[in-house]
Design goal:
The protein is of the alpha+beta class and 416 residues long. It has 4 domains: 2-149, BirA Bifunctional Protein, domain 2, CATH 3.30.930.30; 170-263, no CATH class; 270-344, no CATH class; 360-413, no CATH class. The chain has helices at 11-23, 45-55, 81-95, 134-149, 175-189, 195-203, 251-267, 270-282, 288-297, 328-331, 337-344, 360-367, 393-413; strands at residues 2-8, 27-33, 66-72, 102-107, 114-120, 207-216, 219-229, 235-241, 300-306, 312-319, 324-327. It is elongated. 28% of the residues are buried.
Length: 416
């Protein structure tokens, strides 16, 4: 992530620049501190000016009090608005602007979404915030944030391939070259800790791998064999020994890759970012296809493995933002295959609540003494009133059954 800091005198100019992006539908206000924000994503420039000026003492003699910062993640980092807000707040806090008034804008005028921050370096007492060594401090802070959120180093050139990877197409010919290039690129760009995770990553690009082992002249050997597949995962064409592509893609090299990836993922806490995103999407949907597509929009591919009966028995998440391949159970029980299967096959998963019908007789058994002595349902707090809030369909049906029962008793008492 690259940060660019500029200071100046024109508060209006900084606000108008970002306001113009909003007017052109190329940006929006993400968050604010001590400045009015109506939550619409727009900004009232004159109101913002007043809020900034009310914070800054009139007698301040600080030259160039306005600070305009741009935070630029690596193009391969696909971040949610919440993550961008958190990054901006932490950056400002570490730079000493955490308690200052500020506005954080997200610019969407180019594919590489980035942030613009407008703040001031004068505190409420008119004193200037220390800006010495800002360049070095900022660089250290962005590196810390890259490690915490699993971001790419935006200052490194050729961190990823200039051209995106494509699926292997057996009909296009030279399958060996296609498979070899794909395997080398994926090994260089991603971290995986098991053969299952490695195989899930390869499957995105129509490649699969199998372990080969045997005994030659009394010596055991282990090797890898790569094959091209179609979109359904069926092998096509001839398999290729890993030795055809070089030692870096062989069994021993991949085994070392597992250990190295495990340590990197642990040290840089890369799984945390993926887990946050997956859980946030999972909480919003019970439809499996929607879950997969929404994660893809966030830069995460999902590989679900099913039994012949259609039950999920494996789940792997490929986070292209961090270059990490993670088995669901590795991130926690709530993302294991069993937990996902249960989540997507609950009785009402993906459907509107059903109205349940409970007979009055059952209602009598269920209520017991809890409702005795409360003959008048119109009095008290109305806890059994059908108009009261219900947690779910079953509870609502129970409340209605109780209400009908009490109403029926009242009629009998009146001789009806």
């Amino acid at each position: 992530m690259v940060a660019k800091i500029s200071v100046g005198n024109s508060l209006y100019g900084a606000l108008a620049y970002n306001g113009e992006k909003i007017n052109e539908a190329k940006g929006r206000l993400l968050t604010a501190n001590r400045i009015y924000n109506d939550g619409s994503g727009t900004v009232d420039i004159h109101r913002a000016m007043e809020d900034f000026l009310s914070f800054m003492p009139a007698q301040s003699r600080v030259e160039k009090p306005v600070v305009h910062i741009s935070l630029n993640p690596h193009p391969d980092d696909v971040l949610t608005d919440t993550e961008l807000q958190d990054i901006a707040r932490e950056y400002l806090e570490k730079m000493g602007y955490g308690n200052q008034p500020y506005l954080v804008f997200k610019h969407e005028d180019i594919n590489r979404h980035h942030l613009h921050i407008v703040t001031v370096r004068v505190d409420e007492n008119g004193r200037s915030i220390d800006t010495r060594n800002n360049f070095y401090r900022s660089k250290q802070i962005t590196r810390e944030l890259e490690q915490k959120y699993g971001l790419h180093d935006a200052e490194r050139r050729n961190h990823r391939l200039d051209t995106p990877l494509h699926k292997v197409d057996a009909s296009a010919g030279d399958v060996k070259k296609q498979v070899g290039n794909t395997v080398k690129a994926l090994n260089a760009q991603y971290r995986f800790q098991s053969m299952g995770e490695y195989r899930a990553l390869l499957s995105l690009y129509n490649v699969t791998v199998e372990e080969a082992q045997g005994n030659v002249r009394g010596r055991e050997y282990h090797g890898l064999v790569y094959s091209a597949t179609d979109d359904a995962g069926n092998k096509v064409g001839n398999p290729f020994k890993s030795s055809l592509f070089g030692k870096a893609d062989g069994y021993e090299a991949v085994e070392r890759k597992f250990a190295r990836s495990k340590q990197e993922i642990k040290d840089r806490k890369l799984a945390e970012m993926t887990k946050r995103t997956v859980l946030s999407i999972l909480a919003d949907t019970y439809d499996k296809e929607t879950f997969v597509s929404r994660l893809k929009e966030k830069g995460i591919d999902t590989v679900l493995r099913h039994t012949e009966e259609g039950r999920i028995y494996g789940a792997t998440f490929i986070d292209h933002r961090t270059g990490s391949v993670l088995n669901g159970s590795r991130m926690g029980k709530e993302l294991s295959a069993n937990a996902l299967q249960e989540h997507f096959t609950l009785p009402y998963a993906g459907q509107p609540p059903l109205t349940l019908s409970i007979p009055v007789e059952n209602g009598e058994d269920m209520c017991g003494p809890a409702v005795s002595g409360h003959d008048d349902t119109d009095g008290g707090m109305g806890l059994l009133s059908p108009e009261g809030p219900a947690v779910d369909a079953e509870e609502e049906a129970f409340i209605r059954a109780m209400w009908r029962k009490k109403k029926k008793k009242k009629r009998k008492g009146l001789g009806m």
